[in-house]
Amino acid sequence: MSMQHNPVPGNTEAVEVHRDGGHYPDRFENPGLEEHRPRLGDVDPAANKRAERQIVALFLVSLLGTIVFIAAYFVVPLGDTPESMQRSNFFLGLGLFLSLFGIGAAAVHWAKALMNDHERAEERHPQRSSDENRAGAIQALKDGAEDSGIGRRGVLKGAFASALAIFPLTIALPLIGEVGEDWDVSKFKHTWWKKGTKLALDPSGEPIKAADVTIGSVFHVIPEDLHEAEHPLDEKAKAVVLLIRMDPRDLRSEQGEGWSYDGIVAFSKICTHVGCPVALYEQQTHHLLCPCHQSTFDVADGAKVVFGPANRPLPQLPIEVDDEGYIVAQSDFHEPVGPSYWERLK
Asked: What whole-number distance in Å separates Cα of residue 313 and Cα of residue 273?
């Protein structure tokens, strides 16, 4: 529908003229604020007191959540098994949720049920207010604090202060617990792979023969002797590998001479961006995709980055085949696996 702005004879107000000949004003009077409707707590003291008790209860929920978090940190250790990790994370997460939810819900309920809810409209002022306006703003803050009723609600004030006081423990406790931990970052430069270690299926640990790896197939691989490690899960997090076989004619380059076998290549499964597991292989393009941030690596060209935020290729594990036909590692990775960090900028 086309329209134009024309003055109406005898009227200086701009109007919209439509094809149907109708005249419609393009400006409307400010309707102002709606009539204030009091809340139940504004007219019923019992309802007001009930809302205060509800807010106190929410702050107590926050206190309980913090206690649950602290207890779980000491009583439910992380452990080295998936089950123990799941159990520990569940109770830690539950405690942190209750701690944060209690404070947040209490603050919202306080603002909606107890604080002044009269609508106000203020005209836009210049960016630099006058000294009088600034003094008025300070007084308004003081009035707001007074209006919140915190000064005359002792139980509410105590619950609020207690919840805020101990909540930081949910953040500080894990940090304090790290004191005395092993900060030797050099161990991240090496994995469980070593010369002669057989490549085995994850999670069964069954060694893999080259004859069983067909063109286009992908295997999730771990060191066969990983169970001998003191902390197998920690070592697995660094040593996981993707084993892929392609037509040798499609293999354009690799990171070291003789690091593959008849089109079979092995690359770290840990993305060099932030460490997500790279596991989506596209057989036609020979591309590996990281599902977290879409970094894409070309397996046929030494796992170089062809798209996304990763800034270096996936480290390649040098492999060969032993006398029994099993695929084994020639050595450990020749560079640190995983994302860039303070000692690896590229």
From this structure: 10
